[in-house]
Write a structure and sequence with these properties.
Elements (H helix, E strand, L loop, with lengths): L7 H17 L9 H8 L1 H12 L1 H23 L4 H20 L13 H13 L5 H50 L4 H54 L5
């Protein structure tokens, strides 16, 4: 093999790096090495991206709720309706968006924020690196699948870690309360008050930890789904334009 031919490993890594940059809309920072940028500067906007993807349905539902609330206010103020009917109209306002978002059709949510222009541009970039045949695409896809599996395994590990910590906390929380009540039953009010405070603090920390983990998963989806769709786009080009090569 020629030493000028890049390895599949390096090609895969280069494509993932470029996809991450495109997803985060980051470019070069002059003298700052790319390795430093990826380690120190990418994680926070990466989580922010995942959070935006995670709450996209929520923001859509909130927008619909606000619109329905304005419409309901207009109807109620101009129509002669009973108080019960007015109450039912306002009561339906938050539930209608929840139904519309929860049971939306696939084309409105399955692709998240992915655009056709992004897929076409990424396909051109991958093609320019020499992945220009069905055989190369298959090997690249398999390589990418192995990396994606490793990536999502970390997410599952973090989820199990939080679940284990929560289980241990509940066990220790109940154990300490039982011991405290046996030692000083006359201070039951203070013990319950302190316990509730501790429970709330730990619950809030756990909630935000889970939120960050799921946001990280959504951000990973943003990278690997674009790559998966791009691979299919390149295969489609092969079928349409050149049956044997791209």
């Amino acid at each position: 093999m020629s030493t000028l031919t890049p390895s599949l490993f390096n090609l895969t890594l280069t494509i993932i790096h470029e996809t991450e940059r495109r997803v985060l809309t980051f470019r070069s920072f002059g003298p700052i090495p790319d390795e430093i940028i990826r380690i120190l500067m990418f994680p926070f906007p990466f989580i922010q991206l995942g959070m935006a993807e995670l709450f996209r349905p929520v923001s859509k539902g909130a927008f619909m709720w606000f619109g329905l609330l304005i419409l309901a206010t207009s109807i109620v103020s101009h129509a002669e309706l009973s108080e019960q009917t007015k109450s039912n109209i306002f009561l339906a306002c938050p539930y209608v968006p929840i139904f519309l978002v929860a049971f939306a059709i696939p084309s409105t949510f399955a692709l998240d924020s992915i655009k056709n222009e992004q897929i076409q541009s990424l396909a051109d970039y991958i093609y320019s690196l020499g992945i220009n045949s069905n055989e190369k695409l298959e090997t690249f896809e398999e390589n990418l699948s192995n990396i994606a599996e490793r990536t999502y395994a970390r997410t599952k590990t973090l989820q199990w870690f939080i679940a284990t910590l929560w289980a241990l906390f509940l066990y220790g929380f109940n154990l300490m309360n039982n011991i405290a009540l046996k030692i000083a039953p006359e201070q039951i009010t203070k013990i319950i008050s302190d316990s509730i405070t501790t429970f709330i603090i730990y619950g809030v920390v756990s909630f935000f930890s889970i939120l960050v983990i799921f946001s990280h998963k959504k951000a990973n989806d943003a990278v690997f789904r674009r790559l998966q769709l791009t691979i299919q786009e390149l295969k489609y080009r092969a079928v349409v334009n050149h049956p044997s090569t791209i």
